[in-house]
Every structure is written in structure tokens, then in C-alpha cells.
Design goal:
The complex is a heterodimer. Chain A contains nine helices and seven strands; from the N terminus they run E-H-H-H-E-H-E-H-E-H-E-E-E-H-H-H. Chain A is α/β, with parallel strands linked by helices. In chain A, strands 4-3-2-1-5-6-7 form a seven-stranded mixed β-sheet. In chain A, strand 6 (145-148) and strand 7 (153-155) form a beta hairpin. Chain A starts with 5 loop residues before the first strand and ends with a helix. By secondary structure, chain B is α/β, with parallel strands linked by helices. Chain B is built from 15 helices and 19 strands. Classes of the chains: A alpha/beta, B alpha/beta. Chains A and B meet through helix 5, helix 7, helix 8 and helix 9 of A and helix 2, helix 3, helix 5, strand 8 and helix 11 of B.
Chain lengths: 191, 467
């Protein structure tokens, strides 16, 4: 995983509440056996018409969106299925952070393992972000801060270990493997 | 006094969590299926790692698999080149890494959350994970069971452990006798309607109370299955004699003196009345009506005889527009195109019996397509032994092979765009059952009644005396 330390980007705003993982990547695309190429399927059924042509006014299809690294979504983003294809699709498209007032548990776990930073903000900040699509934001991962171009800065909550892994680009499997003696000892006691 | 969840959690901590590091949690049972594992096996291969505990890993194929009726498994035609590859890759991975696979030739093949309990692999006090959010189903046995992503599937394959922060607890007390026509599905839909699709985020739910105690295991699984639909990490029910009776004699449970020892151990798992939850919710089951969804998430729930409510914001209006429903409209006015009885929520024998009881001697309305998809090949066999397949066939419903099928439409079983489906599955998300498909979630009874009438229908007029 590539270390993630700073993000500076304009935002893309999808204000709908409860965007589920079926919206992010429909199930019919999950027959792939690789992690590659999901970006073009991101938000597929919202993004393309039934003939497969891009829907021009859908925000993800705008030229500006392709350069944005930060997605601002309505409350409770990523609910539903455990498919890791959802963060794979978002990162393959180019997103590095998702901001909402709430982010579903499994989606959050999956995101953190793929260099996608889930950020939870309060309703006031969220409302401002929703009403200012394209706002310039800067994210400092080490300090867990989100800074707006008007100078306002807020901190967001993040698990210390998850932050460390993002900053260092660490694969958590390596951390688990360091505990192999403890796992052997646990199994001896437990079984 | 710890809660059931805390007891199970504490017994599986390999390395305790600190402010800077999560706990290392031991996993007793890792269920795997074809959709969320190929990339994890690729990782193992690239790192030259083996599966640490093949004896704690159990595989099946359910999502991409066809459910078209066939006389022999060799005739099953998988839909789509990539699905064929995914299934082939799964067979190869299980063979190469030495994992027990219930594939096309196994009499135990079925939906992963149906066969785990059926084989007795699901047991009280176990930690159970699967790359599938409906792993919460297994919590019905007093297991701590939750869905994980593919990266974590790789972690468990390689180390039999997961890095986890301890979730909070949410106690849900459900009391009162269920009125006629109200079933486990209606109870869990009522809860999700009450607390919302994010009401359980960050929490493990424990369902308690006399309504839960009176439920059989099939019903408890239906309740726990949809915990994730309230955003919860998992749902659990304390094991009791109902649990032990269900498990006794199943292939993977301990035998003889080991069984007695296991039951003695399992009896120590539940918390008592002094157990404290971080949050608490109560549901009066005696007041419930049959429930249906009217929107595009499982929290948009109303009683079957209620009108579609006003949209409170643009997201809700978008949902109503997608569903082609208007505020004030009675749900019973909505014409039905498809009825699906199946999925890890409601595809067990008692679900099929409930639907069959309503359909017996009646016909599926003209123009309605009804699919009945058993949760496993074993359930299919048991249902056929009871003649349920004949009841469905006589009514004009399709009787299929087992699998996830039309719950998420990965295998070719889909609902056409714009069509309305009354489904016993768990998610009414936009496009879940097919592009543009409109889904109404309901119990098997409501689904069967809707099939007969051709519109979203109250099951109560169709109940037999013995139901």
C-alpha cells in the first residue's frame, strides 16, 4: 500500500443519504477474480444510462471529478454488503478520502486497508461541504485535520493504528504475523 | 456481569487491544465463498503462504451459481464467462490449499449462511467470519459472527486471526406474543424501521426477551441475519435448549461425552440480568403488524395496511420516485410482477412451509412470476420429501436449485427494469435485484399472499388455522 500523508483536492459531492455498496459497485460486476478495473464501474447504474452511455449531469462524469481525490457523500455512506470491491472502485477512480457524517463499519474497515481515508464530520461541517461542491480541502493524515480554503480547520476521529498504517503504507497482515508466537500459544491453551 | 458478546469476545482475545493497537482476535470458523475470496488466495500465493487452519475453514459456492432446475448437477449451466472463471478458480483454490468445499457435487451445497448451521459448524460461543455481510445470521446460535472484506479474508486464511477494535453493545428486548400473520421477518423489519439503517453502526446487537426465546432457530436466524441492515457489526441471541436441540446430532457437532461437555460450556455463555449494554431498545412484538418496505433501504418500513408516508427530504423523494410510489398511496395498490422466496434471510424449511401453506390449493396470479429458491440442497431435499415442490408447482411457482439467486442477481436470476418484486430477501437497494428493479421486502407469508393476489398483500386473510 502506498503511504497516504497529505491530500489536497477539490471535492465531489454526492448528497444522497445511505449510499449503499450496491450503488457504489453493483453485484453483477463482482464475478471478477482480480482487484483491477473497478473504477470504470464505480456508481455504474447512477452514472450510465441503459445503453451504457455516461449520464452527462451525473457529477462523477464531469471532467472536474476525474481530478478530485475527495468524495463528500450524504449521511451514512457505504452501508450494505461487505464487498471490498467498493473501496477498490473508489480508489481505482482516484479517490483517496470519503467524507460523511457516518460511515458504515465494514466499508470503513475495507477502506482503511486500501488507502482510502474515511472521514466523519459533524452535521455543520457536512452541510457546508454539501453546499460547496468543488471546495478546496486539504487533509493532513498525520494530524487528522481537514482544512478549508477559507482557513477553517477541523480534526476528525481516526483509530491510531489505522492512521499509522495509512501513513506508513503498512500492510496489516505483517503486523498480525508478528504475533505468530502468541497465536500458537493461544491455540495450545484454547484447544 | 459481562454480556453474551463480551463473554465470547473475551474468550478469543489472543493479544489485548491498547490505545495504539487493535486486539488480535482468534477466529474459530472461517466460511468462504467464490465471490470475496479469489483476491485473498492470490495474495497467499504471491506471499507463498499456506492456509493456517484448513480444519477451521469451510467453503461453498452460492452467489454466482445457477439455480435453474436440472436433473443432474452436470447440467447446471453457469451464466457468464467471468462467473464460470470465478467458480473454477474457487474449486482450484480449495483443492490447492486443502479446504473442504461443498461445490456442485456436494449434497450440502447451499447458501453459506444456511449450510454452516445445517452442518452444525455454527456453534454457540464461536467466533465466525465470512467475506459476506450476512454472516450476522450465525449469531442466532450465540456465536459472534460478522462480515469482513477480502483483505481480512486473507488475514484469517493466513493467521486464523483478525485485528479488531471491540465494538459497543446494543441490547434489543423484544417481548410479547407475535400476532397471527406476524413473523420473525416482520420483527426485524420493525426494528430496522425503528432505529434506521445506521442505528446499529459500531454496535453488536443482542436480541433478548420472551419473543426471541419462543422463536425456533430458523426464526432466530432471520432476525440475526438482518442485523447488518441496521448497520450493526453483528447480532446475537443467547443459546438455550432450542439451540442445543437444533444442533444435536448434526455432522460437525461434538459427539457423546464431548457433546455433554460442550453444552455445559455453552450454558455459561449468556449474560444475566445485570449485564449492561451501551444502548438499549425495546420492541413490543404483540403490537406488530406484517411489515413491508416502501423505499430503497430496509429502514423504509411500514405496516402492510398503511399508506406510503411523505418524503422528508430529497433522498427519500428519490427513493419514492425510484419505487414509482406516491405518498399517501396504499401499499396494497402496488401491482406485483415478481415474487421471490429465498435468500439467507428466508430460505429455510419453515420459510418454505409457510409460503406453501398459503399457496396450497391456490394459484399465482396471472402475469406474476414466482421463484422459490431453497437455501441449500439439503433443504431442497427435505422440502421435496414433504411435497412442497408439488405445492409450488401446482400453484404455478418455479421450484429451483439452491443459491443466493434473485437476492442480488449475480447468477442470471434478475428482476427486469421497472418491475416490482416482493422479496423475502434482505435488501431493497436500487438495482439490487437487477438494473431498475423495484424491491419490496416482506415475510414469506406476505410474499406468498402477494403472489396470489398480484399486488402487495396482507397475508392474514390467507392464513390457515394451523399457521
Amino acid at each position: 500500500m502506498t503511504p497516504l500523508t497529505h491530500i489536497r483536492s477539490r471535492t465531489v459531492v454526492l448528497p444522497t443519504r445511505d449510499i449503499d455498496t450496491d450503488q457504489i459497485i453493483p453485484a453483477r460486476f463482482l464475478t471478477s477474480t482480480s482487484k483491477e478495473g473497478f473504477g470504470e464501474k464505480l456508481f455504474h447504474d447512477l452514472r450510465y444510462d441503459t445503453d451504457g452511455n455516461p449520464i452527462e449531469d451525473f457529477v462523477i462524469n464531469t471532467v472536474a471529478a476525474t481530478e478530485c481525490r475527495v468524495l463528500v457523500a450524504g449521511n451514512n455512506f457505504g452501508c450494505g454488503s461487505s464487498r471490498e470491491h467498493a473501496p477498490w472502485a473508489l480508489t481505482d477512480f482516484g479517490f483517496q478520502a470519503v467524507i460523511s457524517t457516518e460511515i458504515a463499519d465494514i466499508f470503513r474497515n475495507n477502506s482503511l486497508k486500501n488507502g482510502l481515508l474515511p472521514i466523519v464530520v459533524d452535521e455543520q461541517i457536512h452541510d457546508w461541504l454539501l453546499s460547496h461542491p468543488g471546495a478546496d480541502v486539504e487533509i493532513d493524515v498525520a494530524h487528522s485535520t481537514l482544512t478549508f480554503d477559507n482557513g477553517r480547520q477541523v480534526t476528525y476521529p481516526i483509530d491510531a493504528f489505522a492512521r499509522y498504517c495509512l501513513l506508513e503504507g503498512i500492510d496489516q497482515l505483517g503486523f498480525l504475523q508478528q504475533h505468530s508466537d502468541a497465536i500458537v500459544e493461544f491455540e495450545r491453551r484454547y484447544e | 456481569m459481562p454480556t453474551l458478546f463480551e463473554n465470547v469476545w473475551n474468550q478469543h482475545v489472543v493479544v489485548a487491544e491498547t490505545a495504539n493497537t487493535p486486539a488480535v482476535l482468534y477466529i474459530d470458523l472461517h466460511l468462504i465463498h467464490e465471490v470475496t475470496t479469489p483476491q485473498a488466495f492470490s495474495l497467499l500465493r504471491s506471499l507463498n503462504l499456506s492456509v493456517r487452519r484448513t480444519d477451521r475453514t469451510l467453503a461453498t459456492m452460492d452467489h454466482s451459481t445457477p439455480t435453474t432446475p436440472v436433473s443432474s448437477f452436470k447440467d447446471l449451466a453457469v451464466v457468464g464467462e467471468s462467473a464460470v472463471k470465478q467458480i473454477t478458480v474457487m474449486e482450484q483454490n480449495c483443492a490447492d490449499f486443502g479446504i473442504e468445499l461443498h461445490g456442485f457435487n456436494s449434497a450440502h451445497r447451499g447458501i453459506v449462511h444456511v449450510i454452516g448451521p445445517e452442518l452444525g459448524a455454527t456453534q454457540p460461543g464461536k467466533t465466525i467470519v465470512c467475506g459476506d455481510s450476512h454472516t450476522s445470521t450465525h449469531g442466532a446460535f450465540g456465536a459472534l459472527a460478522f462480515g469482513i472484506g477480502t483483505t481480512e479474508v486473507g488475514h484469517v486464511l493466513a493467521t486464523q486471526c483478525l485485528l479488531q477494535r471491540k465494538p459497543k453493545t446494543l441490547g434489543v428486548d423484544i417481548t410479547g406474543a407475535l400476532p397471527p400473520g406476524v413473523f420473525a421477518k416482520d420483527v426485524i423489519l420493525a426494528l430496522i424501521g425503528e432505529i434506521g439503517v445506521d442505528g446499529g453502526t459500531g454496535h453488536v446487537i443482542e436480541y433478548r426477551g420472551d419473543t426471541i426465546a419462543a422463536m425456533d432457530m430458523d426464526e432466530r436466524m432471520t432476525v440475526c441475519n438482518m442485523s447488518i441492515e441496521a448497520g450493526a457489526r453483528a447480532g446475537m441471541i443467547a443459546p438455550d435448549d432450542t439451540t442445543y436441540q437444533y444442533l444435536h446430532g448434526r455432522p460437525k457437532v461434538p459427539k457423546g461425552a464431548d457433546w455433554d461437555a460442550a453444552v455445559t460450556r455453552w450454558r455459561t455463555l449468556p449474560g444475566d440480568d445485570s449485564a449492561r449494554f451501551d444502548r438499549h431498545v425495546t420492541i413490543d412484538a404483540a403490537q406488530l403488524k406484517p411489515k413491508v418496505t416502501f423505499g430503497t433501504n430496509p429502514g423504509m418500513v411500514i405496516g402492510i395496511d398503511e399508506a406510503v408516508p411523505q418524503a422528508n427530504d430529497t433522498s427519500e423523494q428519490k427513493a419514492l420516485d425510484y419505487m414509482q410510489l406516491s405518498a399517501g398511496q396504499a401499499m396494497s395498490e402496488a401491482p406485483v410482477d415478481v415474487v421471490f422466496v429465498g435468500s439467507c434471510t428466508n430460505s429455510r424449511l419453515s420459510d418454505l412451509e409457510l409460503a406453501a401453506d398459503i399457496l396450497r390449493g391456490r394459484k399465482v396470479a396471472p402475469g406474476v412470476r414466482m421463484l422459490v429458491v431453497p437455501g441449500s440442497q439439503q433443504i431442497k431435499k427435505d422440502a421435496e420429501a414433504r411435497g412442497l415442490d408439488q405445492v409450488f408447482a401446482a400453484a404455478g411457482a418455479e421450484w429451483r436449485e439452491s443459491g443466493c439467486s434473485m437476492c442480488l442477481g449475480m447468477n442470471g436470476d434478475t428482476v427486469a427494469s421497472g418491475k416490482l418484486s416482493v422479496s423475502t430477501s434482505n435488501r431493497n437497494f436500487e438495482g439490487r435485484q437487477g438494473i431498475g428493479a423495484r424491491t419490496v421486502l416482506a415475510s414469506p407469508a406476505t410474499a406468498a399472499a402477494s403472489a396470489i393476489t398480484g399486488h402487495v398483500a396482507d397475508p392474514r386473510p390467507f392464513l390457515r388455522d394451523d399457521v
